[in-house]
Amino acid sequence: MIFVGAFIMVYIAVIMVMYLSQRKLMYHPDSNLDTPLSHGIPEAVPIKLVTSDNLTITSWFKASGTNKPFLIYFHGNAGHIGDRATKVCAYLEAGYGILLVGYRGYGGNPGKPTEQGLYKDAATALDFLLRSGVAPDHWILYGESLGTAIAIEMAARFSTKTPVAGVVLEAPFSSMADAAGALYPYLPTKILLKDVYDSELKITKIKSPIMVVHGDMDKTIPQKLGIKLFDAANEPKSSLWINGAGHNNLYDFGMDQEVISFINKNWPHTSE
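and the corresponding structure tokens:
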């Protein structure tokens, strides 16, 4: 009985520590952001946007060519927008507009990341595009890992207005409860989470074409969670399940060209 009591006390202590430190475990920002030029995309320029809660967030912007898609990139939980610069090179070469969306607490931006906070940062970036005359039906919302939940949230919001041209999800998850449960199966993650990112529910509201890409060797977000999310999505949808790919190396398997093919197939403005 003493052993059981001690085990229960330790288990409760672990739960309390995980609850209090969960955002430190979820978000891993790097504050040292340099210039677009130093990251290999001199075409892009930094822009500063003020959020609804009065934070000034730096993102990187490049206007699109005539009648070209505009790709809005929501990155994952670690690093900053500069770490994704090489991933957008193929899209820049194709003439796409690019907006690498900065987050609060990342890349030297003020604030601390939370689910609702990152949604505010994303909404501010999209409002900038609207004010710049770039309509949602020219947008490709691109999410990577954690950023897939942000892309889905934004696409769902616009589904009742002007649906976006497409949604690309790189290594996505169905919900944070599922993702956390895969990493910490011994904890009641569903009731502990402050930031829930329920993408499986929200993706059902999206009417735009969706592409899901996931590697079967992903140890961070199991591919089964990407499949679960894909199954919940509406048509039209496309999937790319890459054998041998992990969480961070999907571009080593030619993902950028597959994304361009998906966009070309579903681009509605070819006759403009």
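(Above: one complete record from the training split.) The two ends are 76 Å apart (CA to CA).
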